[in-house]
Design brief:
The complex is a heterodimer of chains A (about 325) and B (about 230).
Chain A: H1 6-28, H2 33-58, H3 66-83, H4 88-110, H5 115-134, H6 154-173, H7 175-185, H8 187-192, H9 197-223, H10 233-246, H11 251-267, H12 275-289
Helix pairs in contact in A: 1-6, 2-6, 2-9, 2-10, 2-11, 3-4, 3-5, 3-9, 4-9, 6-7, 6-9, 7-9, 10-11
Chain B: E1 2-11, E2 14-24, E3 29-33, H1 40-47, E4 55-60, E5 63-64, H2 70-75, E6 78-81, H3 93-100, H4 107-120, H5 122-126, H6 137-149, E7 155-159, H7 167-182, E8 186-191, H8 194-200, E9 203-208, E10 211-217, H9 218-223, H10 225-232
Parallel strand pairs in B: 3-8, 3-9, 6-7, 7-8
Antiparallel strand pairs in B: 1-2, 1-4, 4-5, 9-10
Classes of the chains: A mainly alpha (about 325), B alpha/beta (about 230).
Chain lengths: ~325, ~230
């Protein structure tokens, strides 16, 4: 089978090695709880950024409601693990599915909108989800949802990040992914080519929401406690900034964007007065000197050696 | 092959096509000529399912296709090369052509058709891996036509292939359209360049304010006094 060539086996061995090394470091105590907290945060942000990139960067749908999908996933997982004692792996999967269902429901009516209009509609969706959570007593309302069992650890985080990256980058390279990219490039032309644009827009939304739900599940089961305000408009903007910072339409870019912005904001915690100022200046400088994002639209080179690479600078942007 | 009967299309309150009648026989090149805003592009967009008609019939080989969604119309053998080229700028030429063959599954046939397109437009083969957005206007138009051919259409709808191009390039493109037609593809050509279109096509319709004003053999229209005054001179 093609899926088990030499390259893939080496990659799998490397990934397994990383998991084992991570476990050893945790048990020896080199990765203490503070470092682990940051690793989990980075992992969650990578999942969020890569999944949002599929929607915004590849399919060209400007969505401002990604945190809402994360919130749906987080609450699903919290309810399942605390109230029903379900196994974590099942909760993760259900979080993804419920978020994805929400993505389909919100996607079918709103995805006929374009650009700014879609952004406003998804923004409204995010607020609706937040307000519903605020007013629902079963999930704690404004007080928040407490005593969620802590299941998220190094293994779950790393495996979910790898799964997200591998599945989304494979999707993007498939013919379905090509259809999504063609919608970004020119929607009328792709419709004239016989592509069912509504279907692919909803599909991209559903897949993006699925992984955002998983990220929410990891989040809820790491921090014991979630409240509706953690998944507000600003969270959606944070994710979008990571995607744009790394480069729209580049999966390595999203990873680097999530990684560097999480690390920067953690490092700046020691100077709380200037934190947001410095953060803003860094974003400002990057956008000024590299408007296409850190990685532009480069893809993994290791994974697809055969493809001829395009010259990024030749883009008309 | 394609028949429009009493076709009415509205954009909100605007009556864009007022009871249009049009008929295309297999193997023909038919041109649809008219000024800005006459309804030429609307006609094409309605045929290929991008606009909805309010009443009337669009018959493809006798089958009514008014409410067939755009993706399925491509599968029925109708390919629309949209106005203003609308190539995918950040995909390579090869990827653009692949997108054209999106509805097809027969790998061998697709490979054959790549070669056919490259025969028609050798410049595209030379630049296979180049990003389509970096091509010149003429090359982009060639790519758009090539992409349209990749779905292996029975009927090719061309929307203003001469738009914004130098006369020498227009000549080249029109001679390729002739070749495509001689290979057995029926062509519906929408043009503002009436002179070129009438010289190329077998029959022509002249559309004005959403209605067919004149129709007939292209040669006859070329010599028609009214047509000369309105569309060919000054």
């Amino acid at each position: 089978m093609k899926a088990f060539n030499k390259n893939n086996i080496i990659q799998i061995i490397i990934l397994v090695a990383i998991i084992i090394i991570g476990n050893v470091l945790v048990s020896v105590g080199i990765i203490d709880s503070y470092i682990e907290l940051n690793i989990v945060l980075i992992g969650i942000n990578i999942i969020l950024a890569v999944s949002l990139n599929l929607i915004v960067g590849f399919t060209g749908l400007f969505s401002l409601g990604h945190a809402a999908f994360m919130s749906i996933g987080a609450y699903t997982s919290a309810v399942l693990t605390r109230n029903f004692n379900s196994p974590f792996i099942f909760a993760i999967l259900m979080s993804g599915l419920v978020a994805s269902l929400a993505g389909i429901l919100i996607g079918i009516p709103t995805l006929r909108l374009k650009g700014d209009y879609l952004a406003i509609a998804t923004l409204g969706f995010g607020e609706i989800v937040r307000v519903l959570a605020l007013n629902n007593d079963y999930i704690g309302g404004a007080i928040g949802f407490n005593d969620i069992p802590q299941y998220t650890n190094w293994n779950y985080t790393f495996i979910m990040v790898v799964l997200t990256v591998v599945l989304i980058s494979n999707f993007v390279k498939s013919s379905h992914g090509r259809a999504c990219i063609s919608i970004r490039e020119n929607e009328i032309a792709s419709e004239a080519m016989g592509i069912n644009t509504t279907f692919y827009k909803v599909l991209a939304f559903a897949i993006g929401a699925f992984f955002a739900g998983i990220a929410g599940s990891l989040y809820a089961n790491y921090f014991y406690f979630i409240k509706p305000d953690s998944f507000g408009f600003m969270k959606s903007i944070d994710i979008l900034v990571m995607v744009v910072f790394g480069g729209l339409g580049s999966i390595p870019g999203s990873i680097i964007g999530a990684l560097s912005l999480t690390v920067i904001s953690t490092l700046l915690q020691s100077i709380p007065d200037l934190r947001m100022v410095i953060y803003a200046v860094i974003l400002f400088l990057i956008m000024l000197f590299r408007p296409q994002g850190i990685m532009g639209d480069t893809e993994f080179r290791l994974l697809n050696k055969k493809e001829v690479k395009h010259n990024v600078s030749s883009k008309g942007k | 092959m394609l028949e429009l009967k009493d076709l009415n299309v509205y954009y909100g309150a605007i009556h864009a096509l007022k009871g249009l009648n049009l008929n295309i026989n297999p193997g023909e090149i038919v041109s649809l000529i008219g000024a800005n805003g006459a309804g030429k592009s609307t006609t094409l967009r309605t045929i290929s399912g991008l606009e909805k008609s309010k009443s009337g019939y669009i018959l493809l080989d006798g089958m009514k296709i008014n409410s067939v969604p755009a993706p399925d119309i491509v599968k029925l053998g109708l390919s629309h090369v949209p106005e203003g080229r609308r190539i995918f700028p950040q995909m390579s030429i090869m990827e653009n052509l692949e997108m054209g063959a999106y509805t097809r599954k027969d790998k061998e046939g697709i490979n054959k058709d790549y070669n056919k397109v490259f025969e028609l437009f050798p410049i595209l083969e030379e630049r296979k891996q180049q990003l389509a957005g970096t091509l010149s206007g003429g090359e982009q138009q060639m790519l758009a036509i090539g992409r349209g051919l990749m779905s292996k259409p029975k009927l090719l709808l061309l929307d203003e292939p001469s738009m914004g191009l130098a006369p020498i390039i227009v000549n080249e493109i029109f001679s390729v359209i002739k070749n495509i037609n001689e290979d057995g593809t029926t062509v519906l050509l929408v043009e503002q360049n009436a002179n070129m279109a009438l010289k190329l096509s077998d029959r022509a319709y002249i559309i004005r304010n959403g209605e067919i004003e004149l129709e007939g053999k292209s040669e006859e229209l070329l010599n028609n006094e009214k047509v000369r005054k309105a569309y060919l001179e000054g």
